[in-house]
Amino acid sequence: MTNANIHPGSINDDWPGYSLDLFNYPTHYSGDLDCVIIPHGVIMDRTERLARNIMDDLGDHDIVVLCVLKGGYQFCADLVERIKALSRNSNHTIPMRVHFIRLRSYLVSPPSRPLSNDQSTEDLHILGAEDLSFLAGKNVLIVEGIVGTGKTMETLLQHVKAFKPKMIKVAGLLVKRVQHSLASVPDYVGFEIPNRFVVGYALDYNEYFRDLNHICIISESGKKKYKV
């Protein structure tokens, strides 16, 4: 990860979002959302731009894509498809392999340390990454849906570095502006967003809302409805 990024789209803290009345979304989420913060079409356009940036930087490099589940699967799928499309129509090509890992940091806390459902514990478990020896000497692109404080990503990076890849780049669709965040940010950022809990486009709240096309702000009533 780097300390600077190529002009991520920045959404101001006071941005009220778009009215839900302007969009189609599943009716079973009526009353569970405050607003649409990033429409699906905007996500697609920004993803295409990121794919072009990645092609410019990594064209002709054989890379292994590490897709971080579950929140990153939709972004990863769309990003890889756009890189493949650019590769088919360019003198630069990127041979790609995709491997899936899962980070578990949003866990049920013990009674002595109660947390709300939209808070993350400090504990991190990496599933599917026990043996990443095949990354040795490889160029690695980690694809994540959202980055908060950066602690989770830093832990993953240290884990991946232990397998001695040739190069590591990180693409994150969303980066939250949070206090006490780490200095480094992903190499490729889609949008910088306020520190609010967002759902949709594979980002969930207790496994709900992954089926939303748009990225939305969950309402307080939605949090109560799906609280576990």
Automatic annotation (TrEMBL):
Gene3D superfamilies: 3.40.50.2020. Its EC number is 2.4.2.8. It catalyses: IMP + diphosphate = hypoxanthine + 5-phospho-alpha-D-ribose 1-diphosphate. Transmembrane segments: none annotated. The keyword Oxidoreductase does not apply. Pfam families: Pribosyltran. Pathway: Purine metabolism; IMP biosynthesis via salvage pathway; IMP from hypoxanthine: step 1/1. It is found in: Cytoplasm. Residues 44-205 form the Phosphoribosyltransferase domain. It is an enzyme of class 2 (transferase). GO terms for molecular function: hypoxanthine phosphoribosyltransferase activity; magnesium ion binding; nucleotide binding. The keyword Coiled coil does not apply. Belongs to the purine/pyrimidine phosphoribosyltransferase family. This is Hypoxanthine phosphoribosyltransferase.
